[in-house]
Design a protein that fits this description.
The protein is α+β, with helices and mostly antiparallel strands. It folds into 4 domains: 18-102, Phosphorylase Kinase, domain 1; 106-289, Transferase(Phosphotransferase), domain 1 (Orthogonal Bundle); 316-393; 403-475. Helix content is 52%, strand content 12%. It has helices at 62-78, 109-114, 120-139, 195-198, 205-221, 231-240, 255-264, 276-289, 316-335, 343-438, 444-475; strands at residues 18-19, 23-31, 35-42, 47-54, 86-91, 97-102, 106-108, 142-143, 152-157, 160-166, 173-174. It has a 6-stranded antiparallel beta sheet with strand order 1-2-3-4-6-5, covered by helices on one side. It has a 3-stranded antiparallel beta sheet with strand order 7-9-10. Strands 8-11 form a two-stranded antiparallel ribbon. The longest helix has 96 residues, at 343-438.
Amino acid sequence: MVQAKPQRRTDDPSLNKVIAGRYRLEARIGEGGMGIVYRARHVLIDRVVAVKLIRPDLRGETHLRAWMLREARAANRVDHAHIIDIHDIGETDEGELYLVMEYLVGTPLSAEIARGQMPIQRAVDIIEQMGAALARAHDLGVVHRDLKSDNILLTARGGRRDFVKILDFGLAALAHDPRLAPKGAVFGTPEYMSPEQARGEQAGPQSDLYALGILFFEMLTGQLPFRSSDRDTLLEMQRKSPAPRPATIRKDCHPVAERIVLRLLEKDPRKRYRDGHHLLEELKALQRSLPSQGWEKDSSVAPAAAPPPPPPPRSPGVTEWANRAGLFSRMIARAYPSGNGPPEVLQGAARLWDTAAKANGLEGEIASHTRKLEALERRGRALRAEIGRKVEELAQEESRSLRDAAAFAEEEEAARTELSRTEKEALETLSQADAAERAGRGSRAIFERAGASRAMVEAKRQWLDTRRAKREAKEG
């Protein structure tokens, strides 16, 4: 992970420190309320990574360890192209927890929004990528809980601009783990907080969808839907104020895009999209209806196959001792040209060469094992990605089935209401016919109307029975 430019902090005592014997901290690139992020280099395989450490003044806070572990578990559990990769997590000999992530170069979404309203196509493309990542996360029981424009990085990858990476799963909640969400606790950023979060209720997938609505609104209009410098006022607006229509700010806003935004920003979670897959279907339909602008491709960045891994660099320590052994041998050769130097000196030189050779061999073994671990990691990621795709396919089918079932239930309920009304009308008509017959003034029209009402009731009952049988057969 990285912002566009590293923060130059030469007074940081952690710079040039080697974490866990592998990660040399090269530059400070970001800082949040709880952690500091560095650009680092894996000294054995020469790979650039990002390393997150808990801020020095907060390292005694035990709950922050749980926060970092939660971030690693959440991101690794999802394992999606649009979610930052976690490579490693561990603890130093000093008890300092570290998190190793992929190193990314890009622009925060907040910086792009600050430039003004985005083209509709660009905003839809970005929100679609975010929606795909969240759909996978929600399928696997992970809720982000703190989506905001600062946590979205736009990178270039494979010739594509605006390749989305969602960062910072530090507040993510794993399903079925109540310890991570104390009752009444308010998590998140007020500007992006859902009404239920603002009430201190537990955040769920619908809360992330609400935050997506805020982000979509921002990209389309260049501003937040709810604004206040007072936190309490802002939370009250999130709880109660209806979302403004984007078209009141941007006259050329696409009506379908506006409809999607307003549905995402419904105060009642049940009125938002059923899940991320439902949202994706509408976003993709909108994408197909929009003309291509060509901005999504970067012709200056040509797709290329991944290069072979570079040879492992020599460790500074091993190189130094090898140089010393060579220097010592040259000094002995110059001092004793005939080769008959003191035995203890010659033995010392031999031991030095032997030690350097062993160190060199150990370094090679370490590099070999590291490469094997890297290969296993790649295989593991490929396997998790395949599992994720299968889960996504099943989740999409389940989403459609649930929506079909809900639509069927609504239709059936409407039919029952109509049947009840028809039965009532039929009873009234039959009552009128009976009364007319007893009074000796029966009318053919009344009896025909009564017969028609009875036939209509029977037809609607048969329709309901047929629908019920079809549903039961499908479910069976």
